[in-house]
Amino acid sequence: MYARRKGVAGLTWAAGVVVFAAGCASPGPSSPRFTGVSAARDQHVTVEIQNIGWADVTIYSATGGARMRLGTVNANQTLRFPLPKIHQWATDLRLIADPIGSSHTYDSEPVTAVPGQVVRWVVHESRGVRSLSVWGD
To answer: What sign does the CA torsion over 83, 85, 86, 88 have?
Structure first.
């Protein structure tokens, strides 16, 4: 009888350890309890460029003197690029369009974008034909 109780007690103890360990496990990114700033860190800012000009343009993101190339958008084309993580959350983010074959560059107004948002910039070689908007994706 004593041996049987000892086996049940050991089994109960092992089950308790398994339940305790499962309760201590942290939820992963796919868990519905995973929200807030941690979830935002896993996302990125998307930059959408609509080039309605006649020239292909190379697009850069710039903040605090650091400029990074995002890519090239052909004339009459719209493309999306992920914003580099070091430029996310910046309060002085600017986008720069450098038309290929031109000595002029165009830059956007300063914008702040947080992960999960889209920055949309319409580019044209005429200074009066540009718009910048930010929205949640």
So the answer is: positive
